[in-house]
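Input (Tellurium resistance protein):
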Amino acid sequence: MPTSAKLVAAVWFALMGWLAANAHIPALGESASFGRFREITALIGLICGWRILGGQVGKGYADSIGTGLKTSIVLAFFAVLGFSAYQMVGEAMRMHYDGPMGAMLGWVELMMANAKNMATVGVLGVLIFAGVVGGPLAEWTWRRWK
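Output:
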C-alpha cells in the first residue's frame, strides 16, 4: 500500500543512487562507457527505498538509521550485481569465457573488482549519508502524515 513514508524513502534513495553513481564514475576511468548507469542506479535506489526502508517505518528514529544503512547496503549490492552481470554478458558475447561455468565465475570476479573500485570516499560517503539521513527522514514523514 502506498504511503507517504514509502514515497519519501523511494525518492530519497533514487536521488542518492544517482549521486552515488555520479561519484563512482571517476573511478571507472575515461575509457568506460556509462550509458544509463546513473539512471539505472537511481531506479535501483527507488525500488530499495520503497520496499526496504518505506516498509519498515514506525519503529523509532534509532531503528530507522539502521534500516536506512541497510537500504544503502542493499542498493550498493544490487547495483554491483546488476552491472557486473551486464559486463559479464558483454564479455560472454565476445567469447571471453570457455563455458557457462566460466561465465558465472567471471561474474563473481567482476563483482569483486567492481566492489573494490566502488569503495571510494565519495561513494561510501554518499551511501552512509543516504542511510543516516534517509531513515529518520522516512520515519519523520511517517509520523507526520500517517
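The chain has a mean pLDDT of 92.
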